[in-house]
Amino acid sequence: MKAAGPNNSRTSSDMLQKRRRSETAQWEARAPAFAALGDQTRLALVARLSSGQPYSISQLTRGSRLSRQAITKHLRVLERAGIVRSVRTGRESRFEFDPRPLADMQDYLTRVSQQWDQALSRLKAFVEK
Amino acid sequence: MNDVIEKRIELNAPVSRVWSALTDYRQFGEWFRVKLDGPFVPGEVSTGHMTYPGYEHLKWEAVVQKMEPERYFSYTWHPYGVDPKRDYSKETPTLVEFTLEKSGAGTLLVLKESGFEKVPADRRLEAFRMNEGGWTEQLKNIERYVAKAA
Questions:
Q1: Min CA distance, A92 vs chain B (Å)?
Q2: What is the rounded CA–CA span in Å between residue B100 and residue B119?
Q3: What is the dihedral of CA B3, B72, B32, B112, to 10 degrees?
Q4: Cβ-Cβ contacts under 8 Å for A26 (sequence gap 6 or more)
Q5: Does an H or E element contain A116, and which?
Q6: In CA terms, which of A70, A76, A110, B6 is 20 to 30 Å from A36?
């Protein structure tokens, strides 16, 4: 990769610092979500719910070694972290995955933005060679 | 909320050189890392597939909007490539605009991408896939692991 010219070095380092600060803020904002996922049972529940389909507690308990109460407890932890939300249909609660705390808009933009930084630096190398 | 990405970059190459790197489909493909099926034509769909290592399964699909020689080039697309299994027809694409301006012996290129407010939350999660260890991939791994262990 070509090194940035002297005219660009200041701007690039400013941009880098700005990006680092905003990344740190984003990781901090997501910390509760990550903490909630720091458990194998909850990760497995999220993996199942990430298909996008809502599941009832009975469905999630079926095929699990855990009791209905234990599954409910884990779901509540995930709900507090904002990763899953419960939707009531009739007498039954169903749980669905909410990807927002893990992939909020700002984070998405940062990633798209990084893709452009990389693409534009490849363009620079391409036209200047 | 700030939902526009804007980048300005000084390129040590004449405007005509930058223009061809942006609008000649073969040259665009080289730096963007995409293999395009044919030339860019305003109002027409541009198709191809990504050549970025690890993402070759993603399709490229964009609609060329405007081409004003050596000044302005724009297209709409769905950022992060296209998952062949997903239907994007109901989703609003984002607009990508390249503006060129002579700057000394070189070129000032301004890139703008806008329209992100319409991107649905679960699509935003796909962005993680473009990063190593992305969440979607991780969740799939966990799913596989859990399925095996059950």
A1: 25
A2: 27
A3: -10
A4: A104, A106, A107, A110
A5: helix A105-128
A6: A110
Tokens representing residue B136 in the block: 């979607």
Q: What are phi and psi of B95, to 5 degrees?
A: -105, 125
* Nearest to A127, CA basis, from B13, B129, B112: B13
What's the whole-model pTM score?
0.60
Chain B contact for A15 (CB, 8 A cutoff): no
Helices (runs of H) and strands (runs of E) counted in chain A: 5, 3
**Measured between CB atoms, does B119 come within 8 Å of chain A?**
yes
User: What span, in angstroms and rounded, lies between the C-alpha atoms of B28 and B75?
Assistant: 13
Q: What is the pLDDT along chain A (129 residues), one digit of tens a residue?
A: 344 444 444 555 666 666 566 555 555 556 667 677 777 888 888 878 877 788 999 999 987 889 999 999 999 999 988 889 988 878 888 998 887 766 666 677 777 888 888 899 999 999 998
Helix axis angle, A68-80 to A40-49, nearest 10°:
80
